[in-house]
Write a structure and sequence with these properties.
9 helices, about 375 residues, 5-stranded mixed β-sheet, alpha+beta, 7 strands, Heat Shock Protein 90, 2 domains
Length: about 375
């Protein structure tokens, strides 16, 4: 998503196949007018049969097909005029005047061409001369042809409005995706300083107590930071990668707390390919250590579990500390975790932090079950 957002920000333009669009529009125009011709021909033939008048289907079809074919030829002209003079503010009145003239010209053009074909197709209103036929059509059908142009303009106007609405929706979705991406990056950036501060503080303490252990811990921290930087663009990783990062983090914390800390990670192998948010477990474990182990004198335990339940992946981090007050369950790390889950999965996720009935705190995350493509 980040790469797509960058491409759009630098102004990458989609490739438009103009020839294909023109051909598709032409086919739609021809098909639409052919359908209109058949409907009008059918109506004229049925009306003649009801009145008992002799009207062959071929003759009725020829008359309306010629009429529709002329309008089909005029439609691209009407569409071009409508595109050049859209019925929109602030030039609405001027565009209205232009279309008024254009509708009259197109209607006259239709009648003039139809008058040429009228003797051939057996139209009813035929005079000995073209001018006579045109004059008769002008007096009887001009007002019936004028609205046709306006229907074409109205259809084009509606199409533009629909296209503009769809483009606004697409643009809004792109902006929302970019905003969500920026928020996710900001939330992850807030989490990393907490972890880094604790690790450096641990190494600082160990430098005065056990230099070799401090050196090993520093190497672990270096590897951990390198791994974090390598996945900085990824909002999701496999559960196996997340657990690998978590084990390195717990290794550093083990050096800090020594025998006071014991932990278990219970993850069935089939779940290691599941997709989870990057660094989603580390702040939960950090809170378990801070509020569960660091506040007690004796040893403490942290347990990380994962399970699949239907189409959902369940993750949990539990400690055996003294528990939390209600106000303490929305500290920075947990609030960020809740915000990240909401941005990534909307209402398809659940995050719950509560005091366990057996003592301590349990944090549970429910995610949609997804694996690596």
């Amino acid at each position: 998503m980040t790469q797509l957002a960058r491409k759009e920000q630098v102004g990458a333009r989609p490739v438009i196949n103009n020839g294909s669009d023109v051909g598709r529009r032409g086919a739609v125009i021809v098909a639409a007018w052919a359908l209109v011709a058949l409907l009008f021909a059918g109506q004229a033939w049925i009306a003649a049969q009801v009145r008992g008048e002799p009207l062959a289907w071929a003759r009725a079809s020829a008359i309306w097909i010629v009429w529709a074919a002329v309008w089909a030829a005029l439609t691209p002209i009407a569409l071009r005029i409508e595109a050049r003079f859209p019925l929109q503010r602030p030039y609405f009145l001027g565009a209205l005047a232009v279309h008024g003239v254009a509708s009259a010209v197109c209607a006259l053009a239709n009648l003039a061409i139809f008058a040429l074909a009228a003797p051939v197709i057996g139209a009813a209103q035929v005079e000995p001369t073209w001018l006579g036929t045109f004059s008769r059509l002008l007096g009887t059908t001009l007002l019936l042809n004028l609205p046709v142009y306006w229907l074409i303009v109205a259809a084009a106007h509606v199409e533009r409005l629909v296209r503009a609405a769809r483009e606004r929706d697409r643009r809004q979705l792109r902006l929302e995706a970019q905003l969500a991406d920026a928020r996710l990056q900001a939330l992850r950036t807030q989490l990393q300083p907490h972890f880094l501060f604790n690790a450096i503080n641990t190494i600082s303490v160990l430098m005065r107590e056990d230099v070799d252990l401090a050196d090993r811990t520093l190497l672990q921290l270096s590897a951990l930071l390198r791994r974090s930087l390598e996945s900085t663009e990824a909002h999701e990783v496999t559960l196996g990668e997340e657990i690998g990062f978590l084990e390195s983090y717990l290794g550093i914390e083990q050096a800090r707390f020594g025998e006071r800390l014991s932990y278990r990670i219970l993850i069935p192998d089939p779940l290691l390919e599941a997709r989870v948010p990057n660094l989603i477990l580390q702040p939960l474990v950090e809170n378990a250590l801070r509020h569960g182990l660091a506040t007690r004198a004796g040893p403490g335990r942290v347990e990380v579990k994962a399970a699949r339940r239907g189409d959902a992946l369940l993750l949990s981090v539990a400690d055996d500390g003294r528990g939390l007050s209600p106000a303490a369950t929305e500290r920075v790390g947990l609030a960020n975790t809740r915000a990240r889950l909401r941005l990534l999965y909307a209402d398809r996720q659940r995050f719950d932090v509560r005091n366990s009935g057996e003592g301590g705190v349990i944090a549970e995350i429910e995610l949609p079950w997804r694996t690596v493509p």
